[in-house]
Design goal:
Elements (H helix, E strand, L loop, with lengths): L16 H5 L2 E4 L6 H10 L3 E2 L8 E5 L2 E5 L7 E6 L2 E8 L6 E5 L1 E4 L9 H17 L4 H12 L11 H4 L13
Parallel strand pairs: 2-3
Antiparallel strand pairs: 1-8, 3-4, 4-5, 5-6, 6-7
Helix pairs in contact: 3-4
């Protein structure tokens, strides 16, 4: 794994499997583990905030989870009753008024990286090798890996994407033949 993966950034895109394998479909009546759902949102790059105002963010208030998927025009309120999803409804983020009920909600990664243990391990090895080549101080490298381990997305993450993905693909890999 000593290749110069940093040259791949300009000519490649994310692997389609990132969006195919790391998505979650929610629907009324489905039983979910609330903490596991929150963990999934964090791992897939959603930002936890006090009140949802932007795509890619989520808020937790007791049995309510407000999620704004990056591919949706409006956020969605997931109403839980114990471990069961009781209702899904889109709402206006300014007024908090319900816009409509939904039958399903698909949540895909909000960022270019899904922070799983295997992805982080691969990235740490690759980033360490690159830091050695470029004489980056150990303290900066340690700060970067600590942030990554805590799900903190660094500025200009897109420049580091090859460290996180086994292989990057062209844009055409995302569309059907």
């Amino acid at each position: 794994e000593e290749s110069d993966w940093s040259s791949d950034v300009c000519s490649s895109d994310l692997p389609p499997s990132l969006f195919q394998d790391k998505r979650l479909v929610l629907k009324a009546g489905l039983e979910v583990d609330r903490e596991a759902l929150i963990g999934f949102l964090v791992a897939t790059g959603h930002h936890r905030v006090p009140s949802v105002e932007d795509p890619g963010s989520f808020a937790v208030r007791g049995e309510l989870l407000d999620i704004w998927p990056t591919v949706s025009d409006l956020p969605v309120r997931v109403e839980l009753f114990g471990d069961e999803i009781e209702r899904l409804k889109s709402f206006d983020p300014l007024t908090q008024e319900t816009v409509g009920d939904l039958t399903t909600l698909t949540i895909a990664p909000a960022r270019e990286v899904v922070f799983t243990a295997d992805v982080l391990a691969r990235a740490k090895v690759r980033l360490s090798a690159l830091a050695d080549l470029r004489h980056v101080p150990t303290s900066r490298m340690r700060a970067l890996t600590t942030d990554l381990e805590h799900g903190i997305v660094p500025v200009a993450l897109e420049e580091l994407l090859p460290a996180f993905h086994e292989r990057l693909e062209s844009l055409f890999a995302h569309v059907p033949e």
